[in-house]
Amino acid sequence: MKTILVVDDEENILQLYRDELTECGYRVVTARSAAEALECVREERPHLVTLDIRLENSVDGIEVLRQIKEIDRTIPVIINTAYSEYKQNFGVWASEDYVVKSSNIEELKARIASLLEIR
Amino acid sequence: MTDILHLIEELLDISRKSTGGADLTAATGELLAQGLGADRWEFRRPGRPADRTAGDDPLEVPDHQDLTDADIEALLAASETRFLPAASGDRPSLLVVPVPAAEGAAGACLLSWDHPSSAGPLDPRSGRTLVMTISMISANETLRSRTGTMTREREKHLQEMWTLQEMNNALQGTLQLNRILKMILAGATTEMGLGFNRAALFLLNERTGLLQGMMGVGPDSAEEAEQIWESLSRHSDLSLSRQIELHAGNQPRESLFDARIKGMRIPVTPGGGTLSHCVTARTTERVEGPDHDPPPEIELSQRLSMSVFAATPIISRNQVFGLMVVDNIFDGKPITDYDLRLLSMFSGQAGLAIANAKEHRAHQRAAEELSIAREQLLQTERLALLGEIAAGLAHEIRNPLVTIGGFARRLEKKLLPPDPNQRYAGIIAGEVHRLEEFLDEILLFGKDRQPIKTPLQLNDIIRESVQLFSLNLSEAGITVRTILSDRLPTVNADASQLKQVFVNLFSNALDAMPEGGELTVESSFDHGPSTAAIVSVSDNGGGVEPEVLGNIFNPFYTTKSGGHGLGLALSQRIVTDHAGRLSVVNHPGRGLTFTISLPLPDSNN
């Protein structure tokens, strides 16, 4: 069973994603801050991470991305954010995918599936 | 003996009453003859035997043929009379009284007596007094006439200045070129203005070297001319400037003259006709017929029936704008020097007015363009600001929508019809979806995302990129060598993104050669199975270790302290977005060579 780490500062989103992804058969762990996220990556070594760019305390999501990659380059990271214009930010090129947040989780689920398959 | 005093009194009397000139001469002659009891008198001028004024009974020429011009002039100089007694019985005796110049009529009055006597009617002293009186009268006369001339001339000048002033006033009233042209022509044709029958304006098109007929004012027939003069005379109580304004506004329909003028194009060449000459030599010409030098352009007589006319160049700031052409075809009034002078001065004013109008128009246009540009800038700024606000809003709105819609969907999936709650959940999910789509739309005028591909020449992009980076390269002591294929077809790509890639690669090369070196950029055309454009960027920084090579395109991988290691990763992403490939080859001891291959558009195959 694959483990997915969902990083987002909104509790409601975490709950939604947890419910949805669990139903897909994944084990879901969540993190609400940069520190939590990195700790989780170190300890759990999830198979995939979904990451919101804007986390509380103005922590730069790109920086978190970089640090995750530093810990383990092989973990695919999907940037999942309400912002669409970050696509042009060169930092996000380091991620494996970029999915704009939507009430329809299907696309996110599909991307997760395909990335996990490639591995 | 004659009563000389009485005679002198009467002479002075005449001079007071006379209007001068020939009148005075005749009156003097008459009075002298009467006062001295002579039977005949004649006034004669030296050198002009035919030019004489005489009494009713003129002397006969043989009577005084021994009186020479020199004799008369000597008498004039001495202010003396001479009595020539009759030599024989059938010749009269003659008294010569010199009459000094009164407006250039210096000469002598000759008086003869039929009944000869040996003694003259005047003693020398009286004679001298008489001549001096006449001399005084004559001098007075000259002075008076000169004063009269001066007064007339001054009046003329004043009149000129006033006319010009009035016309200037009219012209000042507007900055519109069209109206100014109309007023200029109106000023040239009104009675109180220059008073010509017809006037036309030609403007010089510098680009084509043609004088283009712009406007013509004037009646089309003698009858029409009559009507116009009549109607204008009704307005004669108005000031000239007002008349001009009226006249300019009153040109009703297109007159034939105007239409013909508008259809005329006169070339300006060194060997051209009168109008052409006016422009090149900047002279005012009065043409009296076809044998003027240089001869008038044939179109003038052919199309306008213009044979006697005047033309003056319109000059401002040392530049010839065009010509004004006038004639008096209907009343045949000759164009005098005075007219020409006035016309010439008026054209100076016209030039100024036209120059002002043109400048004004240029300013207006510039102001308009500025205004448009400013509007556009504002608009762009507004949109940009709107984009920013929208982006901020969108994020704040999106997150809650994800939650609302996400859970509504879950409910919709869990509930089953005929439970109405299922339908409700569906509706909630649907509305959320609608909102999300709307957000997507309004964010479209935010920043651009996809590469905007246009057909371009890779070699151009390479050169521009080298140019962009040239300062950095030369400062680091790096020489650039470009070997660009001239048979490279166009590719479809985003120019600025490609430049980003090249600059990235140059930057990488710069890092590899801190002590200087050589950077080589090559472009070529791959004829292989999949045709592509190939660009390679090589440095001679000695190459890298194998493990570096393996990680080189990985994001955040960098051997540079302080580097972010994203440049090559980004470059690779850009190239793959263009359906191309970015790869690298290591030449140990020499350097790295990066190769970009971009597919060519299908139509180029």
Describe the SSE topology.
The complex is a heterodimer of chains A (119) and B (605).
Chain A lengths: L2 E5 L3 H13 L3 E5 L2 H11 L3 E4 L2 E2 L3 E2 H11 L5 E5 L15 E4 L5 H13 L1
Parallel strand pairs in A: 1-2, 1-3, 3-6, 6-7
Antiparallel strand pairs in A: 4-5
Helix pairs in contact in A: 2-3
Chain B lengths: L3 H14 L4 H15 L3 E6 L2 E7 L14 H10 L3 E3 L8 E7 L7 E7 L10 H49 L4 H13 L8 E8 L4 E8 L4 H12 L6 H11 L5 H7 L2 E3 L6 H8 L3 E3 L10 H7 L4 E8 L2 E9 L9 H78 L5 H23 L11 E3 L1 H18 L2 E7 L6 E3 L1 H18 L4 E10 L5 E8 L6 H6 L15 H11 L3 E7 L3 E9 L6
Helix pairs in contact in B: 1-2, 1-4, 4-7, 4-11, 5-7, 5-11, 11-12, 13-14, 14-16
The helix-and-strand class of chain B reads alpha+beta
Give the helix proportion of chain A (percent range). Answer: 40-55%
What is the overall shape of chain B?
elongated
Number-wise, the strands of chain A total 7
Shape of chain A: globular
Could you give the count of β-strands of chain B? 18
Q: How much is the average pLDDT of chain A?
A: 87
Please list the strands of the largest sheet of chain B in the order they lie side by side.
8-7-6-11-10-9
Oligomeric state of this protein: heterodimer
SSE succession of chain A: EHEHEEEHEEH
